[in-house]
């Protein structure tokens, strides 16, 4: 096991998690900005393509905040794993980061394809690459 390599890959995983954590914070703390981001992803424009009644808009902001909270919690766990047991070369840490990310990617991306949300497919793929590159590159250190 190469501790220097694991430290490098750990930092990349933490950086990827920090990016997702930042987006999560936007969804929770600046919901209109989060909405604009996802409207860009889904509809290629920063506003809803249809008029959204205030009651529904309030619910959408609440739902996006909950999504942000779940993502934030998940990324905090990823950061904790990457800083400690992953860096120490403990196989369970690699598995605990890689397998849930793979499961999320397959489920979320399949759902997005089924609904024609191609922007989300691209967002998912970019996110998967941010985590996948360091995970795949570090795999040999967890034999």
How many strands?
A: 0
Radius of gyration: 17 Å
Order of helices and strands: HHHHH
Low-confidence stretches: none
Number of domains: 1
Helix content: over 70%
| Structural shape | elongated
- Summing up helix and strand content along with how strands pair, one would put the structural category as mainly alpha
Give the strand content: under 5%
Defining key terms:
single chain, 143 residues, mainly alpha, 83% helix
Can you tell me about this structure?
There is one protein chain. The longest helix has 33 residues, at 54-86. The chain has one domain (3-142). The chain is built from 5 helices and no strands. The termini are close together. The protein is mainly alpha-helical and 143 residues long.
Furnish the topology, listing elements before pairings.
Blueprint: H1 3-29, H2 31-43, H3 54-86, H4 91-114, H5 118-138
Summarize the structure.
The chain is an all-alpha fold and 143 residues long. Helices cover 83% and strands 0% of the residues.
């Amino acid at each position: 096991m190469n501790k220097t390599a694991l430290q490098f890959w750990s930092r990349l995983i933490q950086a990827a998690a920090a990016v997702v954590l930042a987006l999560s914070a936007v969804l929770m703390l600046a919901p209109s900005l989060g909405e604009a981001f996802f409207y860009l992803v889904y509809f290629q424009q920063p506003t809803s393509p249809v008029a959204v009644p205030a009651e529904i808009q309030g619910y959408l902001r609440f739902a996006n905040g909950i999504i942000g909270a779940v993502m934030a919690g998940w990324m905090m766990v990823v950061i904790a794993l990457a800083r400690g047991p992953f860096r120490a070369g403990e196989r369970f840490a690699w598995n605990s980061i890689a397998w849930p990310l793979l499961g999320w990617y397959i489920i979320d991306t399949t759902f997005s394809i089924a609904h024609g949300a191609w922007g989300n497919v691209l967002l998912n793929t970019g996110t998967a690459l941010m985590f996948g590159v360091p995970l795949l590159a570090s795999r040999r250190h967890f034999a």
